[in-house]
Design a protein that fits this description.
single chain, 202 residues, alpha+beta, 3-stranded antiparallel beta sheet, 8 helices, 9 strands, 20% strand, elongated
């Protein structure tokens, strides 16, 4: 087996500028073609605390300053920050949510890393839009996060109390435009009727 200098490999990792690494990223950065060799190298990098293992084939640079939101994006892809987390970020919900919540077209699941809970709620692929890159993470626009929350609530998966929401920042025209793209089910229309009590001109 070809021998690799750990100090040289560590320098390559830091020089890459990356914070998050997949097995493939490490393969490209370290230029190690043989997978068995790369697995051994990764073990050494973990033992030397250059990297932290998040889960299978996903790693984080040790001591890197990363936000919970960018970590959430990386852990389960594709996904974007939405629901309570996004609404708290925009100041719509005052209380900080226990979980970092995201929307995904994949299956619903929860993951725990470093004692933090990352929840991913399934939405239809045709509803996977209305987000942007802000700083170093991908998050729903305020209006999309609100509608995601209302849509999931209409299906009985989340509870909402609109009296607790500060809706003063809502962009009415964007909200109207987005609203038209959601399935107009009986349950969803009922929730939107409640929203209209707080925002009459939608």
């Amino acid at each position: 087996m070809e021998r690799y200098n750990l100090a040289v490999l560590t320098k390559k990792i830091y020089d890459s500028g990356f914070t998050f690494f997949t097995f493939k990223t490490l393969k490209d950065v370290l230029k190690i073609k043989k997978e068995s060799t790369l697995f051994n190298v990764i073990k050494k990098l973990l033992k030397a605390e250059v990297l932290i293992k998040i889960e299978k084939n996903k790693y984080l640079l040790k001591n890197a300053e990363v936000s919970d939101f960018s970590l959430a994006n990386f852990i389960y892809q594709p996904s974007y920050i939405s629901f309570e987390s996004a609404l708290n970020f925009y100041g719509v919900l005052p209380q900080f949510p226990y979980e970092i919540s995201s929307a995904t077209p994949k299956k619903t699941l929860r993951k725990i890393f470093q004692e933090k809970v990352f929840s991913y709620t399934h939405i239809k692929r045709e509803l996977f839009w209305g987000y942007e890159r802000k700083e170093n993470f991908i998050i729903a626009f305020l209006e999309k996060a609100l509608l995601d929350q209302l849509y999931i609530a209409s299906k009985g998966y989340k509870k909402i109390n609109l009296d607790e929401y500060d809706l003063s920042q809502i962009n009415i025209s964007r909200l109207k435009r987005y609203l038209k793209k959601y399935p107009q089910t009986k349950q969803f229309r009922k929730v939107i009727k409640t929203l209209k009590k707080h925002i009459p001109n939608i």
